[in-house]
Design goal:
The strands form 2 sheets. Strands 1, 2, 3, 4, 5, 6, 7, 8, 9 and 10 form a 10-stranded antiparallel β-sheet that branches. Strands 13-12-11-14-15-16 form a 6-stranded parallel β-sheet, sandwiched between helices. The longest helix is centred in the middle third of the chain and has 17 residues, at about 360-380. The protein has about 725 residues and is an alpha/beta fold. It is globular and about 90 Å long. About 25% of the residues lie in helices and about 15% in strands. The protein binds CIS-heme D hydroxychlorin gamma-spirolactone 17R, 18S (HDE). CIS-heme D hydroxychlorin gamma-spirolactone 17R, 18S binds near residues 83, 157 and 162.
């Protein structure tokens, strides 16, 4: 009966078939043309009235249909992730460009014709499930590869280093950043006392702090983020030769961010901004794409660096070890159901395949315990690997049995090994049949609670990061620290933090201090107060080691890809009387460049044109803001532009776009709106004579550039 409507209810799913999609298809439940039933398959007569003793009588306990409905509803929630609770995900595939047999025996990395299905979940770390996408935070970038040899999970972040060096401090870090326990304030924010109190005592976090205070922590889109495996991993080839490796994801669209002022406003206008962006891009077929990059280091070179490869607060500068681009990740299908897939997916850095292994990084070692453990309470028991999204496409046979919500119906009487009654099955594979062989790393050490000597160089790479930033990026870091520390109430914590920043860079500390109304303090006593009880504090203090690289271009977003306006959202600001021909000319050019033009107007429906065709309105000014767009175009049409010039919301729209250094263009009488907004037409793209190829070309180029940072200092004075 309602098939047309039911179809409109479905997400776009044009993705090519894959073994994982075939497997998931068996679990999809589709109500199209079906009758309503209970969980037992009993057809439901009437879903509007409970069973009562007479029309006005009490409900009857025997109404098993009512009881089933309410009971299920009462148990719809599961515990959210302790960290990374807020996320969005998509399906896709991964393929290598050419065989990686020179590094690894992993089967899915041998042949460019192998398309490995993946499920990728992006997330923020600190906030709850319902928090804003635009929090200043690290983003999770977790990839599950469904390979023929079992699932491989690369559970990384969009920042290549981490706050702490040892898993033993993770709980403390997270307790410090989460809302304070007495009043549960603030949500999804590090700008509060407990976080900075902890950080001010942990010099090892200073490199990561530089990254999270940079614009990397407020991405424009998940599609415009880098990803990193963070830890050093091991690749092992068919001969058993092991090499160290760092994993990178390089986005095709480049690495781009929003400004903090935008982030704050987007959180109000559209807290689902990143989630929506990912969904919409995939739904229209603009599939997000990344290249897989590898930094490979011979085992013999392990100790040749100024830093320790096992220290997760350090990166390997690309100038020392270049990133080889080796494969392609494409996301081409939205999930059918958020809970079933995005919420129930369970990642684990210990999900490995032959040819990829972890190292002794003490942060990674702790993670190997945590991820299975956390699923036991989050997903309710040991059978979470049987949930459709978590099932491998590789066959799974073992003697694990029973437990909550077991799905498999294991046949036979033999549930142990060795056995004769089951013919010895399932049999051990052995290395030749693909059994996982752990790299026989030599271990000879004393049992100690210590860390490697080079771990104590806490500031050199923080300084490297700072020195590698462009001036606008440096300014944003200073502003971020002024904001964050400005929210700290205890003066000693603020001061201590500024003292710590002075270890990274004097100018940075001075600029932050100035904003806070402080002098840069000289910290009295040891910098590192997280010292083991019996250790001599002196041996635990930061030591600077000479680094081989003073600046690294790859660390600055200024050097990212800026060659495309694809998927960029452009607001065409218009009102009744607009010149429809100008809209058409600009819209055609934008669509040809892959951009997404939308008409924003004072009212909905369609506009009465001054010339040309009547444009349909996509959004009213009330429901959006320029912070939700990458660029603004104001076409001419005397009645339209005089209405907009007199409309405070429209004027604010333009001012904000200008202030946020976005591409702004105006044609014909559109220049009057610029004037009303106090925007100097020479600072943007303006053509009194109307739209021509030069204007559209320059506008598209400006959009591809992402922002005109040169405008920022001047634009600060625009009231918006
Ligand atoms: Fe995680 N982390 N983590 N983490 N992590 C979790 O696992 C943990 C760390 C990362 O989209 C949890 O299933 C410990 C570094 C991502 O589902 C939990 C330590 C990096 C995700 C957990 C770390 C990450 C998680 C919460 C320090 C970057 C989201 C729910 C020893 C390399 C995955 C869950 C998704 C999730 C523990 C540090 C990345 C509690 C103990 C470093 C992307 O198990």
């Amino acid at each position: 009966m309602p098939s047309k409507k039911a179809k409109a209810n479905r997400p776009a799913g044009k993705a090519a078939r894959s073994p994982k999609q075939d497997a998931l298809a068996r679990f999809r439940e589709d109500p199209e043309d079906q009758l309503l039933t209970t969980d037992q398959g009993l057809r439901v007569l009437d879903d509007q009235n409970s069973l009562k003793a007479g029309p006005r009588g009490p409900s009857l306990l025997e109404d098993f249909i009512l009881r089933e409905k309410i009971t299920h509803f009462d148990h719809e929630r599961i515990p959210e992730r302790v960290v990374h609770a807020r996320g969005a995900a998509a399906h896709g595939y991964f393929e290598v460009e050419r065989s990686l047999s020179r590094y690894t025996r992993a089967a899915f990395l041998q042949d460019p014709s192998t398309k490995t299905p993946v499920f990728v979940r992006f997330s923020t770390v600190a906030g709850s499930r319902g928090s804003s996408d635009l929090a200043r935070d690290v983003r999770g970038f977790a990839v599950k590869f469904y390979t023929d040899e079992g699932n491989f999970d690369l559970v990384g972040n969009n920042i290549p280093v981490f706050f702490i060096q040892d898993a033993v401090k993770f709980r403390d870090l997270i307790h410090a950043v989460k809302p304070e326990p007495h009043h549960e304030i603030p949500q999804a924010a590090s700008a509060h006392d407990t976080f900075w109190d902890f950080i001010s005592l942990m010099p090892e976090s200073m490199h990561m702090i530089m990254w999270v205070m940079s614009d990397r922590a407020i991405p424009r889109s998940f599609r415009m983020m880098e990803g990193f495996g963070v830890h050093t991993f091991r690749l092992v080839d068919a001969k058993g030769t092991a090499r160290f490796a760092k994993f990178h994801w390089k986005p095709k669209l480049g690495v781009h961010s929003v400004l903090w002022d935008e982030a704050l406003k987007i959180s109000g206008k559209d807290p689902d901004f990143h989630r929506r962006d990912l969904w919409e891009a995939i739904a229209v077929g603009a599939y997000p794409e990344w290249e897989l990059g590898l930094q490979v280091i011979e085992e013999a070179d392990e100790h040749t660096f100024a830093f320790d490869l096992l220290d997760p607060t350090k990166l390997v500068p690309e100038e020392l070890v270049p990133v080889e681009r080796v494969g392609r990740l494409v996301l081409d299908r939205n999930p059918d159901n958020f809970f079933a897939e995005t919420e129930q997916v369970a990642f684990h850095p210990g999900h490995l395949v032959p040819g990829i292994e972890f190292t002794d990084d003490p942060l990674l070692q702790g993670r190997l315990f945590s991820y299975t453990d956390t699923q036991l309470s989050r997903l309710g028991g040991p059978n979470f690997h049987e949930i459709p999204i978590n099932r491998p496409v590789a066959e799974m046979h073992n003697n694990q049995r029973d437990g909550h919500m077991r799905q498999n119906i294991n046949v036979g009487r033999v549930v142990y090994h060795p056995n004769t009654l089951g013919g010895g099955c399932p049999m051990q594979a052995g290395g030749a049949a693909g059994g996982f062989v752990s790299h026989p790393e030599a271990i000879d050490g004393q049992k100690v609670r210590e860390r490697g000597e080079k771990f104590f160089d806490h500031f050199s790479q923080a300084t490297l990061f700072w020195n590698s930033q462009s001036d606008p990026e440096k300014q944003h870091i200073v502003q971020a620290l002024r904001f964050e520390l400005g929210k700290v109430e205890v003066p000693e914590v603020r001061e201590r933090m500024v003292g710590m920043l002075a270890q990274v860079d004097r100018t940075l500390a001075e600029q932050v201090a100035q904003g806070l109304g402080l002098a840069v303090p000289k910290l009295a006593g040891p910098l590192n107060l997280s010292v083991p009880a019996d250790a001599d504090p002196k041996t635990y203090q930061p030591v600077a080691r000479k680094q081989a690289v003073a600046r690294s271009q790859a660390l600055s977003m200024a050097s990212t890809v800026k060659d495309s306006a694809e998927t960029r959202k452009v607001a065409i600001l218009a009102a009744d009387g607009v010149d429809g021909d100008e809209i058409d000319a600009m819209r055609r050019a934008l669509l040809a460049a892959g951009a997404v033009p939308k008409i924003v107007a004072p009212h909905g429906g369609s506009l009465k044109p001054g010339a040309g065709a009547a444009p349909a309105v996509d959004f009213t000014l009330l429901t959006v803001g320029s912070v939700l767009f990458d660029a603004v175009f104001i076409p001419g049409g005397a009645a339209s532009t005089s209405a907009l010039a007199g409309d405070a919301t429209a004027v604010l729209f333009v001012r904000e776009a200008y202030k946020h250094c976005k591409a702004v263009a105006a044609s014909g009488t559109g220049l009057a709106v610029l004037e009303a907004a106090g925007v100097d037409a020479r600072d943007v793209l303006a053509r009194r004579e109307g739209v021509n190829a030069q204007l559209t070309g320059a506008f598209i180029e400006a959009i591809a550039q992402h922002r005109d940072w040169g405008r920022e200092a001047k634009a600060q004075n625009v009231p918006a």
